TrEMBL record, chain A:
The chain crosses the membrane at residues 42-63, 128-145, 165-187, 223-253, 273-297, 309-329, 358-379, 427-450. GO terms for molecular function: phosphate transmembrane transporter activity. It comes from Pseudoruegeria aquimaris. It is a multi-pass membrane protein. PANTHER family: PHOSPHATE TRANSPORT SYSTEM PERMEASE (PTHR42727:SF1), PHOSPHATE TRANSPORT SYSTEM PERMEASE PROTEIN (PTHR42727). The gene is pstC. The keyword Membrane applies. This is Phosphate transport system permease protein. The lineage of its organism: Bacteria, Pseudomonadati, Pseudomonadota, Alphaproteobacteria, Rhodobacterales. Part of the binding-protein-dependent transport system for phosphate; probably responsible for the translocation of the substrate across the membrane. NCBIfam families: phosphate_pstC.
UniProtKB/TrEMBL annotation, chain B:
The chain crosses the membrane at residues 32-57, 219-240, 260-282, 288-310, 331-353, 406-425. Residues 215-422 form the ABC transmembrane type-1 domain. Residues 1-20 are annotated as: Disordered. It is a multi-pass membrane protein. CDD domains: TM_PBP2. SUPFAM superfamilies: MetI-like. InterPro entries: DUF3333 (IPR024573), MetI-like (IPR000515), MetI-like_sf (IPR035906), Phosphate_PstA (IPR005672). GO terms for biological process: phosphate ion transmembrane transport. Pfam families: BPD_transp_1, DUF3333. Keywords: Cell membrane, Membrane, Transmembrane, Transmembrane helix, Transport. GO terms for molecular function: phosphate transmembrane transporter activity. The keyword Amino-acid biosynthesis does not apply. The gene is pstA. This is Phosphate transport system permease protein PstA.
UniProtKB/TrEMBL annotation, chain C:
CDD domains: ABC_PstB_phosphate_transporter. The keyword Cytoplasm does not apply. Its EC number is 3.6.3.27. Part of the ABC transporter complex PstSACB involved in phosphate import. Responsible for energy coupling to the transport system. It holds the Pfam family ABC_tran. PANTHER family: ABC TRANSPORTER I FAMILY MEMBER 17. One of its GO terms (biological process) is phosphate ion transmembrane transport. This is Phosphate import ATP-binding protein PstB. Its main location: membrane. Keywords: ATP-binding, Cell membrane, Hydrolase, Membrane, Nucleotide-binding, Phosphate transport, Translocase, Transport. It comes from Pseudoruegeria aquimaris.
């Protein structure tokens, strides 16, 4: 049914285009001068149909699910849902839906089967209604558009106005996305904070999100303090940067000033490859190679190393950040005007002195901006830590210990069950909120530094 | 100036030359040290890439072949009856046939038969069942079939199980190794290319697990991502670059886009989970939702690339067209956009390559489910390549280690291809003005 | 003024500081400087003039091997400084550039304080034994560059905050702080206003008492004002070289005459 609606839409656009164009051509054949080209008259009709009808279809598709669900539940016999909480209600609904799809497990009650049939009927009615609405709307617009065709009609301006509107809509999607992120995080975090006090979340030293087993057990005290999770994130970030910053900066310095052209033309693509490797691959690399290597090294030195150390996850994250930092630093160094470099060399500075005393300090703001962006990446990086770091939140700064991070907790809390009313699920959104805020502040700050720096040398 | 100044006054000091000379050795050493550090740093980066690729290849290449055993199966009418199809004792039939190929096996002992049967993959009985169901006349006949062996024997054949290990620490007992050696001696064992890796969907048994479901899921997700992000991204970029007035609103949009490009991917996952699935009621684990999420993440990349491409078209082209009386939109859509297209496509492909490797948001919307059939529409449950890698990396069976590496090699193969296309486009079509 | 110029010319004619023989410079496939031979006199101002793109700046950059820093640039021929081949593999360009300083077309102070700008050369070359020494060098150099009075109260201020003319004089101070024997100036006044130009020209006149100055300039008036010897470059070749007075009043080559009278350029 849905694809039929899209087909009708497409057909209406084509027909509308054709009718209007024919109309305009006929006027022209009569010897009148058209204001706009005939094809603009056609486009006018097609766009006039496309935008509202497509909106109608999408809105209908988004809204019909929840509406049908509500109608189905409302039509259930009295008393069938007595004593069920929201989780129970969802289960009943899910069962009814799966019956309506023909997947029957065990022997459901008769009222559930009846509800499933009702559900199917509602769906069919909704689809039919949508198709009818689509056809009616498309036809109405087509007639309207045809009535506008005339020698004086400014079809091109009409088309351009619609196209402008579409482009403005496209630009605002970025804003909608941000609004969506903020709304989702604020909404779910609000629900979380109604279950767990803010003070406990921000300053609690214990992170043990449990699924409540009994009714009175919800949010056992002290279980949702994010401090150890944050500390773990910091430990891994610090490990990653200790590794990535020197290596990244030194390779940028070398490539920018010393490397022969041929090495540079090989090295830069290789670094780009390193930057393009998906993080899930780095995560597997960490558990396949790095963690065992660190472990056996520790054993040979007589140190007890846990299997998923912060060191393993952090150093692999460091490898991931090397190309990021290196390319940022390289760009910043290249942006320093050649005149400064010449000035230093002409004074008899060696190339190393030119680099360390003149180019590097001049490029420092850009480099710092890049490193800050790398910090924000490290904090928000997910797959490497999900695969290689630990799950238990510990209050430690020892990189040889196993720590957990904000992103690890978000993923582990949300994999599997997702009902939106227990603190375990909602805690993930609260952590997401903190993650979003922290990275947002760092990003804005870093982007501002980088932008200022670019302006200084443009 | 007076005449006295014309006399050769202050003779040039020769201190400079000497001082410079004296400092040279130290300064050269410093330069060499800096260069050495730089070379060291580059080497570390290269070494890491090398170890990464080498470890993946060395653990993954084995998964591109799969040990099979060829056996003559007598479809015993006592075990398999036509009227009871598709049920039947296919496993017993296989075990009995296999036992007959081995010397010194007591075919009447059920425990021994079970042990022999474990040589075959769990999928073997279903393969046989499907053959018989398709052609019931096979009952009572002897047919030759080639089926995968189970994971431990596959590992043994690939040399991944050390025969020197004490028996109690080994996954296969001496007796079982002897069975396999006997089969190998008789020429029944083969190791062809593992087509199953690409034609099978996921499975709990490593020897049967394949990437088809993940490939299809990734395809639907990327298609959705492209269909949404490409027009939206280009539309936004054209508006911001060519039409938007320079005011607070367009500044705000611009800051917004730059920030979105740096928001952690897991946050997009939270958005998708809460808004798309929670509020809009879209299905969980569906590639459509994954693609929608990826589209929001890819859009900033496409916008930034498109704007750069539009910017590189010289203003003279615009002026020429405007001078002929074209409207601003005609100028953009008929002249500027076609000229900027190679750059836009390059940026789009790079953005899609990033989206293909993105994992975290897909995990949050449930694209890490265990699904044993490929999705037939973007609204069916599916996994994607990176989430499949994550699932396999998490699986305890030994055979999944090399499958994971192989899946990563496949993923990297796609990424390299996409990037190569992007580079080709850039070099072939991008013109310098 | 006239007397002094004559005397300087006399001194300059006697001693050769730099001697270039058959110098060719290539940028990739471009032949930028073609077989140039020239002798540069000690403690005199030599001007290189010619239309843009004629290779005069490129040739100037050969004299302290600044072309080494450009990828794909190749220099052939021989250049001797005090009889020593500066392109000899044994010669360290660092050492050479300490002796042959350079001032560029656009003022390029480092984004550091005025003091640090001037002290940079002496610091890297180890010319000062202590802070007092360094202070003295900085003050003397700033005085020689005729900018001391303008900046003595704000030596800690960033050098990039000065006006264009002040920046250029700061760069000259920075260059003379290492006590170079030769100072190459690549159109040092092209980015400056007339007043600043006059200040820099006066400075050049002052500098030639103990430094050989080679200046590339677009302005023939400037060449006539400050130099004792003038070389005219055209399309990569050295067309004519001689005393400034002779070049401007009685050029031997018709191309020189055409340029001076404004027919090519």
């Amino acid at each position: 049914m849905t694809s039929l609606a899209f087909f009708v839409l497409l057909l209406a656009c084509v027909v509308g285009y054709w009718i209007n164009r024919r109309g305009a051509q006929a006027i022209r054949a009569d010897g009148q001068r058209l204001h706009s080209l005939a094809s603009y008259h056609g486009l006018f009709s097609a766009l006039m149909i496309l935008v509202p009808v497509l909106t109608l279809i999408l809105l209908w598709l988004v809204l019909q699910g929840p509406v049908i669900d509500r109608l189905t539940m409302a039509a259930l016999p009295e008393g069938a849902l007595d004593g069920l909480d929201s989780g129970g209600l969802q289960l009943v609904l899910a069962e009814i839906k799966s019956i309506s799809r023909g997947q029957i497990f065990g022997t459901p009650e008769d009222w559930k089967i009846a509800a499933a049939e009702h559900h199917v009927a509602l769906k069919a009615r909704s689809s039919a209604l949508m198709l009818g609405a689509v056809i009616a709307l498309a036809a109405a617009i087509m007639l309207f558009a045809r009535s506008r065709v005339g020698a004086e009609f400014r079809a091109r301006q009409g088309v351009e106005r619609i196209v402008s509107g579409l482009m403005i809509f496209c630009s605002t999607v970025a804003i909608f996305t941000t609004v969506g992120i903020v709304a989702a995080l604020v909404f779910e975090t609000g629900k979380f904070l109604s279950l767990v006090p803010l003070r406990e979340f921000l300053f609690g030293l214990n992170w043990e999100p449990q699924i409540p087993i009994r009714e009175d057990q919800i949010a056992a005290s002290g279980a949702f303090g994010w401090v150890p999770v944050m500390l773990g994130t910091l430990v891994i970030t610090v490990v990653a940067l200790t590794f990535a910053v020197p290596v990244g900066l030194l390779s940028a310095i070398y490539l920018n000033e010393f490397a022969p052209q041929r090495l540079r033309s090989v090295a830069k693509p290789i670094l780009e490859i390193l930057a393009g490797v998906p993080t899930v691959v780095y995560g597997f690399f960490a558990i396949l190679v790095v963690a065992p290597a660190i472990r056996s090294l520790g054993t040979s030195l007589g140190i007890d190393v846990s299997p998923n150390t912060a060191l393993a996850a952090g150093s692999v994250m460091g490898v991931m950040l090397i190309p990021f930092i290196s390319s940022f630093a390289d760009d910043a160094l290249s942006a320093v005007p050649r005149a400064l470099r010449d000035g230093a060399l002409a004074l008899g500075a060696t190339r190393a002195e030119t680099m360390l005393n003149v180019l590097f300090p001049a490029a420092l703001p850009g480099i710092v901006g890049g490193i800050l962006l790398a910090v924000s990446r490290a904090i928000g990086e997910t797959m490497i830590v999900v695969m290689a770091a630990g799950l238990i939140a510990k209050l430690t700064v020892n990189p040889l210990d196993s720590v957990t991070t904000v992103t690890v907790q978000i993923v582990t809390l949300l994999i599997g069950d997702t009902s939106f009313d227990n603190p375990k699920t909602l805690a993930a959104f609260a952590l997401g909120m903190m993650l979003f805020l922290v990275t947002l502040v760092i990003n804005i700050f870093a982007l501002r530094i980088v932008r200022k720096y670019r302006e200084a040398y443009d | 100036m007076t005449d006295t100044s014309s006399a050769p006054n202050t003779p040039p000091r020769h201190g400079t030359g000497a001082a410079v000379q004296a400092s040279l050795a130290r300064r050269r050493r410093k330069q060499i040290a800096l260069q050495a550090c730089g070379i060291g740093a580059i080497s570390i980066a290269f070494l890491m890439l090398f170890i990464l690729v080498a470890s993946l290849v060395s653990s993954g290449y084995q998964a591109f072949t799969q040990t099979h055993v060829t056996l003559d199966v007598f479809v015993d009418p006592e075990e398999v009856r036509e009227e009871r199809l598709p049920r039947g004792g296919f496993d017993d039939v296989l075990a009995a046939s296999l036992a007959r190929m081995l010397p010194d096996v007591d075919t009447s002992d059920r425990a021994t038969l079970r042990q022999v049967e474990r040589i075959l993959s769990n999928g073997a009985q279903f393969a046989l069942r499907d053959m018989v169901v398709a052609d019931p006349s096979l009952i009572g006949q002897t047919i030759e079939i080639t089926v995968p062996v189970s994971d431990p024997y596959d590992q043994l054949n690939k040399g991944l199980i050390d025969r020197e290990t004490p028996e109690e620490n080994r996954r296969l007992k001496d007796e079982e190794i002897a069975y396999f050696d006997a089969l190998k001696e008789s020429g029944a064992i083969s190791k062809p290319f593992n087509f199953g890796l690409f034609t099978n969907a996921d499975s709990r048994f490593p020897e049967l697990a394949g990437l088809k479901g993940a490939l299809v899921g990734s395809f639907w997700a990327l298609l959705t991502c492209f269909v949404i992000s490409f027009p939206l991204g280009i539309g936004a970029a054209i508006y911001l670059e060519e039409f938007a007035p320079k005011n607070r609103v367009s500044d705000f949009i611009e800051v917004n886009i730059n920030n979105l490009a740096a928001v952690p991917s897991v946050v997009f996952g939270l958005l998708a989970l809460s808004v798309f699935i929670g509020w809009f009621g879209l299905p969980r684990s569906a590639p459509f939702v994954g693609g929608l999420t990826l589209a929001l993440m890819t859009m900033p990349t496409i916008i930034i690339a498109t704007r750069a491409a539009l910017k590189s078209v010289p203003p003279s082209i615009r002026e020429a067209a405007l001078g002929l009386g074209a409207s601003r939109q005609q100028v953009v859509f008929q002249h500027v956009l076609p000229l900027a297209m190679p750059g836009i496509l390059t940026g789009t492909i790079i953005g899609l390559a990033q989206a293909l490797g993105e994992t975290a948001p897909l995990l949050l919307i449930g694209m890490n489910a265990f699904i044993t059939s490929a999705a037939s529409s973007p609204f069916d449950s599916a996994t994607a390549l990176p989430t499949q890698i994550f699932i396999w990396a998490d699986s305890p069976e030994r055979g999944f280690v090399s499958r994971t590496s192989a899946a990563i090699l496949v993923l990297l193969g796609f990424l390299v291809t996409m990037n190569a296309i992007a580079i080709f486009l850039r070099q072939r079509f991008e013109r310098k003005w | 003024m006239n007397d002094m110029t004559k005397f300087d010319r006399f001194v300059g004619l006697n001693e050769t500081k730099i001697s270039a023989q058959g110098v060719n410079v290539f940028y990739g496939d471009t032949h930028a400087v073609k077989d140039v031979s020239v002798e540069i006199a000690e403690r005199a101002v030599t001007a290189f003039i010619g239309p843009s793109g004629c290779g005069k700046s490129t040739f100037l950059r050969c004299l302290n091997r600044m072309n080494d820093t450009i990828d794909g640039a190749r220099v052939e021929g021989q250049i001797h400084l005090d009889g020593e081949d500066i392109y000899d593999p044994k010669v360290d360009p660092v050492q050479l550039r300490a002796k042959v300083g350079m001032v560029f077309q656009k003022p390029n102070p480092f984004p550091k304080s005025i003091y640090d700008n001037v002290a940079y050369g002496p610091r890297i070359h180890g010319l000062a034994r202590n802070k007092a020494d360094l202070d003295e060098i900085v003050e003397k150099s700033l005085r020689r560059a005729a900018i001391w009075d303008e900046v003595k109260d704000r030596l800690d201020a960033p050098g990039t905050g000065l006006s264009g003319g002040q920046q250029q004089r700061l760069c000259i101070a920075r260059a003379v702080a290492t006590e170079p024997e030769v100072l190459l100036m690549d159109e040092p006044c092209s980015a400056l206003d007339p007043i600043a130009t006059a200040q820099v020209e006066e400075l050049i006149d002052e500098l030639k008492r103990n430094v050989s100055v080679v200046i590339v300039t677009h302005s023939m008036q400037q060449a006539a004002r400050v130099s004792q010897k003038t070389a005219f470059f055209h399309l990569g070749t050295l067309v004519e070289y001689g005393d400034t007075g002779q070049i401007f009043t009685n050029p031997k080559d018709p191309r020189t005459e055409a340029y001076i009278t404004g027919r090519i350029g």
